[in-house]
Every structure is written in C-alpha cells, then in structure tokens.
Amino acid sequence: MAYVGTLDWARETGGRLRPSDRLQLVRQAAGFYAGQLSGGLRRCLGLGNAGAHVDLSAVRVPDSALARATEAHVAAVSPPWLAAHCARSYLWASLLAERDGIAHDAELLYVACLLHDLGLTKQHEGTYDAVHCFAVEGAYAARDLATLQRWDAARRDRLAEAIALHLNVIVEVGRGPEAHLLHEGTAFDAAGIRYNDLDRATRHAVLARHPRAGSPGLKDGLVPALKRQCCSRPGSRTALLCLGGFARQVRKSPFEH
After folding, report:
1. At the N or C end, where does the chain have fewer CB atoms within 10 A?
2. Mean pLDDT of all residues in the chain?
C-alpha cells in the first residue's frame, strides 16, 4: 500500500483518503502539535534559538526556460493573491534551506513552489479524471509542463511528487529535499509555521518583495478556496486538515493579511 501523498498513492486513490491514510495523517498531526507545544514552551522559558537572519539577496531565482514558462503560466491562470503566495513560498523555502543547511535543486524547488496550487485555479481544477485532490491535480499539471520542457522522467516525477506530498502534515527530508522544502515554505506562508525560525528583518525583506496585502489578501483568498475544496471533495486531505483546524490556523497566523 503506497504512502499517503506520493505519486503511487495518487495513482491508487486519486487523492481520496483511505482509513489507513487518515490514521497516518492523524499520527503526523499528533507529532507536529507535540513539537509545536514543546517549541512554544522553550521560547516562553527563553531557551529557544533566536530567529535566523538570512540575506535574501543570496537566494537565487532560477531563469531557465521552464522557470520562465512557469512564471508566465502562473501569472496567466492565478489570482494575484495566489501568485504572490507561490512566489513567497519559494523565498521562505530557500531561506529555511539556508538556515537548516539543506542542499537542493533550486530550479526544481522554484517550479514546484510556483505550481503547487495550480489545482486551486479555475483553469486546472477538474482537468484530470478521477482526481479528488487539488494537490494531485497540481502535481499532474506540473509534470505535464515539465514534459513540454523535456525534463527527464525521474526529475518530472520528483517535481510532481513534491507537489502531491505538500498537503501532508509533515514531509520529511527523506522524501526528497525539494518536497520537504516545498512543504516548509508553503506552511510558513499559509499558516506561519516556523515563523520564529527567521528573524524580523528576514521576514520583512520577503514581504517587501512580494506583499501579502491585496483585494483579497492571502487569508481572504485562501480560506474560501480551502472551504470550497472541503465541500466538493470531503474525502480529501484538505477536508481532513480543515476538520483539524487548518483554516483557522491560516486566519490566526502571525501575518496581517
């Protein structure tokens, strides 16, 4: 039985959770929240590490043919709040990679970050038959775009699997550095996960480059999109995450918008 969130799992289930998948995600959530409580307690006691300062100018934005094609596609199909979320997610992911010392394929991570929410766009939702998860739709769409740019099959699958996995509660580095960093970057931007791992100056530099405010801003755009997914796909990871309070976490994140 394939591990939840992987491409093999997506092929087996179409993105609809099985009882064993639900149990796996609940276990991940238990471990995640235990870590959050421990980290919060350490900070309250003054034992936690200070947020890292990482120079944003050191983050390289790839300019390959696929990177440029990806930027154009995202701009064409995404509302501004979603495109900005994707761009910030790459910067957060890259900064956390520097903080944590994680070597990775920058082009693959960039493309994954820009394309990870394609399944939330009108142009891509419902594109593939028997798919019940927007992350799986995004994974397949990203793989198709990489195919057009003649990426080899193994690299296309790494890209697609990173996107398919990003809705899991936890994505370990062992699942691939790009998959792990995509998860960390998107969680940072959407819900403020690991917010205190980067210092204020580093956070402000990212927000100055890609502001969160807008009509709507990220919170006012993402929360309704998640709720629509819950209604249309009650057997998905999105529905389970929101049942566990993820939409509320997005609303209550440390970011203003």
Report:
1. N
2. 93
pLDDT score of 184 more than 90: yes
**Rounded Cα–Cα distance for residues 159 and 228 (Å):** 26
Contacts of 170 (CB under 8 A, 6+ apart): 28, 31, 32, 183
114: left (phi over 0), alpha (psi -120 to 50) or beta: alpha
Provide DSSP, the chain. -PPTTSHHHHHHHTTPPPHHHHHHHHHHHHHHHHHHHHHHHHHHTT-SPPPBP--GGG-----SHHHHHHHHHHHHHS-HHHHHHHHHHHHHHHHHHHHHT----HHHHHHHHHHTTGGGSTTTTT-STT---HHHHHHHHHHHHHHHTT--HHHHHHHHHHHHHTTSS---GGG-HHHHHHHHHHHHHHH-TTGGGB-HHHHHHHHHHS---SSS-HHHHHHHHHHHHHHH-TTSHHHHHHHTTHHHHHHTSSS--
Residue 196 exposed, middle or buried by CB count within 10 Å (0-12, 13-18, 19+):
middle
Q: Which residues are registered as beta bridge partners of 52?
A: 198
- Is 147:141 a contact under the CB 8 Å cutoff? no
Q: Residue 181 in contact with residue 109, Cβ under 8 Å?
A: yes
pLDDT at 170 over 90: yes
Can you read off the two tokens belonging to residue 122? 């009108």
